[in-house]
Amino acid sequence: MKIIDGKKIANDIKEEIAQEVAAIREAGGKIPHLAAIIVGHDGASETYVGHKEKACNQVGFNSTVFRFEDDVAEDTLLRRVHDLNEDPEIDGFIVQLPMPKHISEQKIIEAIDPKKDVDGFHPINLGRMVIGLPAYISATPAGIMELIKRYNIETLGKDVVVIGRSNIVGKPMSILLGQKANPGNATVTMCHSRTKNLKEVVLRADIVVAALGRAEFLTADMVKEGATVIDVGITRVKSDKTKSGWKLLGDVKFDEVAEKAEYITPVPGGVGPMTIVSLLQNTLKASKGEIYPK
């Protein structure tokens, strides 16, 4: 069994980005600028945006956060999105989800200029990804693909099962792993809550991506010997063994599945660190016009 160390890979990539930004700065070029819009005071959202700001500082990016209270009007947010679309100093920006119930998340997402949609949520970027055109890939799937690539995990001709069909992880992962590319060229099955005989389906998989949001759902009896297991889930549960009183669990029952897996991602320290790094990579691409030429 080999642990896929997302924290190490993320740090390696941040160092690579930092070196490139230093070269841009020395040449007098424009420093990449990532912005974020956050509404309310959701703890998980605050943590994520805080990590984003820290990561931007580590690699030398400029970073701006626009904060709004829970009762902000939808039109006010749309105006801010429009302003960021038009601001030449901002290379890319994200709108942190979830939003309050009175805000249409889809309307906000669709208002973002696809050229600045470094989260990869806009339908244009999703559509471009589906047909194999250059696009911003949403951060978690992009991070998983980078882990697979850097650990030289073979995907060509492999049977892959993705458990979960969200627009943010499950659907993009199934498309990326099935594309004619490397990594890719896999035979992909996407499972969900209505899948019959789920255990039998997963047992055939050479690679399992668990992204359903249920703590320790995937157990050893569902995984074949020598499989690669990618755990996307993260659930906070109470614990009397930690100072905080909480601990993080993935969708995989790690201790028992690790005994059968050839490769496995831990939680925390697996997929999570790659999400922020993928956002940085997309912002760097945006600043250089690599996806949509300026």
Main attributes of the structure:
single chain; 294 residues; alpha/beta; Rossmann fold; 2 domains; six-stranded parallel sheet; three-stranded parallel sheet; 10 helices; 16% strand
Brief sketch in words of this structure:
Helix content is 39%, strand content 16%. The protein has 294 residues and is of the alpha/beta class.
Please explain how this structure is put together.
This protein folds into 2 domains: 26-113, Leucine Dehydrogenase, chain A, domain 1 (Rossmann fold); 139-273, Rossmann fold (3-Layer(aba) Sandwich). It is built from 10 helices and 11 strands. It has helices at 6-26, 43-59, 74-86, 105-111, 123-130, 139-150, 170-178, 198-203, 254-258, 272-288; strands at 2-3, 33-39, 62-68, 92-95, 159-163, 187-191, 207-210, 228-231, 235-238, 246-249, 263-264. A 6-stranded parallel β-sheet has the order 1-11-8-7-5-6. Strands 3-2-4 form a 3-stranded parallel β-sheet, sandwiched between helices. α1 packs parallel to α10 (272-288), α6 (139-150) packs across α7 (170-178) and α6 crosses α10 (272-288).
